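Re: folding output
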Amino acid sequence: MFLIFSNDGFAQKSRDAEVDISFVTATAKVQPFIPELPGTLMEMSGLLVYRDLFWGFNDSGGKNVLYACDKSGSLVMEVEIENARNDDWESVTQDEEHIYVGDFGNNRGDRQNLRVYKIRKGDIQSDRHQKVKAELIAFEYESQQSFASPVNGTPYDCEAMAFYDGKLQLFSKNWKDRITEHYQLPVKSGKYKLKAGDSFNVRGLVTGADFSPGGKTLALLQYENWKIYLWLFTDFEGTAFLQGNSQCIYLKNLDSAQAEGVSFLNKDTVLISCEETKSFKQQVFLLDLRELANGTHSN
C-alpha cells in the first residue's frame, strides 16, 4: 500500500486497497452540469453560485483572483482581491452582503497565518477584469500546541466552510483520524481562537461544505481511497449539525476524481466541482437528491 501526495494534499491509498463502505446508505451517479471549466480554473477548489454565475478559484499558489463562469463554462469575470495572497485558498461561501474566501489549507499543520477574506458584494461590478479589497478575518486553533506534524498527519487542516446563523461554519479535514471537527468563526474582522464543537466520524477527508437554501440540510463532500462521498445532515438542533440525522452517499462514477467544491443549486440539487486530473477534466457535476433512496446513519 502506498500514498500519492500532491501539492494540494489530495492523498489516497492504492486503488486496490480494501474500502469499508458499511457506512454508506445510498449510491448515486452524478450528471455533467458544466462539462469543462476554463483552463484558468484547472485546480478549482471552491464553488459558489451567485448572480446566476459559478464562482471559484485555484488553490495553493494560484492567483488571488475569483473567477466567474456561466453555464456553458465560458469565463465571464475575473475579480482580483488586491490586498490578498493565495497561500492555499480552499473554500468560498456567502451571506446576503458578502463573499468569504477561506485561505486556510494546511496539509502539514504548520501554518500560522490562517485567514478568511471578506468581500462586499456591492464592490463587485460587471466588468470583465476588476479589483476589490477585502477585510481580513484571522484565526488559530485553540488546541494546537505544535506546528510540526507528519505528512498527512495533522488534524488542523481545513477545506470546508459555509455560512450559517451569522457565522462561518468550518469543518476540518482531519488527516489524523478522519473525524471531522466543527468550528465557528465570527464574520467580524479580527483574530480569533477557535475551539472545536461537535465532531463526526466521516471516515474520510472533508473537502467542501454547504447548506441548502433555508439551512435545513448540511452537505459535506469527502474522499477516501479514490472514492468520493457526500454526507447529508438533517434534523439538527441549533448549530449541532453533526448530531442530526446523517446519510452517506457514495458517488460511484466519480472514482479517481479530485472533487473539492460543493454548492446547493436549489433544495433538491447539489453541484460538485472537480479539479483536472488524469481521469477527469476540470468540471462541475450535478446530483439530483430526489433520486436518492431514504436512509440515515447514526453518529
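--- second protein (sequence, then structure) ---
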Amino acid sequence: MHTHRHRPHINLRLERWHRRAIYVSLAALLLSGATWLLARYFLRPMTEYGEMVHPLEPLAMKLHGGAAMIVLFFLGSLMNAHIRRAIKAGRNLVTGWSMIALMVTLIASGFGLYYLAGDGDRVIWSIVHWTIGLAGAGLFVLHVVLGRRSVT
C-alpha cells in the first residue's frame, strides 16, 4: 500500500524590507545598464574629430558596477532564505533555475568584460551581457508573478 506524502507548505515570501531591497537594487542595475546602452549607442556626439564618448557612459558604468555588487550581496542572501527552500518545496522551479542560470551567465560575462575582454572581442562580450541582462528583467517579473500565483 502506497502512502501519499504531503509536503508541508513552505513560506517562500521574503520579508518586505528584503523584497524591496532586491527590487531596488535590481532596478538600479537595470537602469544603469540601460543608461549605458542608450549613451553608448544613441547619444554619442559626432565632432570634427569623430565620434566621442558621451559623458553618461562612464558614470552609468560606475553606477552599474556598484549596483552589481549590491545585487550580488542580495543574491547571496537569497540562497538560504528563498532558493534552498523553494527547491525543497518544488515550487516555481523552471523560472527559478532559469533565474539562477541567467545570473551566473551575467556574472560570468560581467567578469569577462572587466577582466578578459580585449579590443577584438569586447563587442561580443558586451552584446551577450546586455542582451541577457535585458531579457533577465522579463524573466524576473515572470518568476515573481508565477511565484505569487503558486501561493494562492
